[in-house]
Amino acid sequence: MTLQISRAFVDAMLEQSRAEYPDECCGVILGPEGEDKVERLKPMVNAAHSPTFYEFDPKDLLALYREVDEHNEEIVVIYHSHTETEAYPSRTDIAYANEPGTHYVVISTRKEIAPATEFRSYRIINSEVVEEPVTIID
């Protein structure tokens, strides 16, 4: 599969990752149920406030699931940044990846590549990580 995503969403995620540095940023992109189409970006708060780990606040996550149900949407993308490592899922990222139909986007803002960034997408199923192509639509 290929993740097709708008330049506006990519720019918004990159901006969030820079704004929240040195902590990891996180969020989701929602779309119509069953369509694998990205329509609505929803930044989330990294409740861990950590440069090496992210987690959604349980209350925010519950509210997100309610919102998704009310709008007949699904989580199409779960994204977060890595502040000091490459844009590849960590062991923790892999352990917590429990949505096999979701695109897992990792953005790296590590200093060695600044001002550039890495933006990569993966499928993670049963702890197996497969990178997928990304098509950015202007």
Task: Describe the protein's architecture and organization.
The model has no long low-confidence stretch (mean pLDDT 94). The longest helix is centred in the first third of the chain and has 14 residues, at 7-20. By secondary structure, the chain is α/β, with parallel strands linked by helices. It has helices spanning 7-20, 58-70, 91-96, and strands spanning 3-6, 26-32, 40-44, 73-82, 103-108, 118-125, 128-132, 134-137. It is globular, with a radius of gyration of 14 Å. It has one domain (3-137): Cytidine Deaminase, domain 2 (3-Layer(aba) Sandwich), CATH 3.40.140. It has a 6-stranded mixed β-sheet with strand order 3-2-4-5-6-7. Strands 1-8 form a two-stranded parallel ribbon. The chain is 24% helix and 36% strand. It contains 3 helices and 8 strands, in the order βαββαβαββββ.
Question: Which helices and strands occur, and which strands form pairs?
Answer:
Layout lengths: L2 E4 H14 L5 E7 L7 E5 L13 H13 L2 E10 L8 H6 L6 E6 L9 E8 L2 E5 L1 E4 L1
Parallel strand pairs: 1-8, 4-5
Antiparallel strand pairs: 2-3, 2-4, 5-6, 6-7
Any idea what the radius of gyration is?
14 Å
Most strands sheet: 6 strands, mixed
Could you give me the name of the CATH homologous superfamily?
Answer: Cytidine Deaminase, domain 2
- Highest CATH level, the class: Alpha Beta
Q: Tell me the number of strands.
A: 8
Order of helices and strands: EHEEHEHEEEE
Note poorly predicted spans: none
CATH topology: Cytidine Deaminase, domain 2
Structural class: alpha/beta
The quaternary organization reads as single chain
Number of discrete domains: 1
What's the pLDDT, averaged over the residues? 94
The CATH architecture category equals 3-Layer(aba) Sandwich
**Beta-strand content bin:** 35-45%
Relative helix content: 10-25%
CA-CA gap between termini: 20 Å
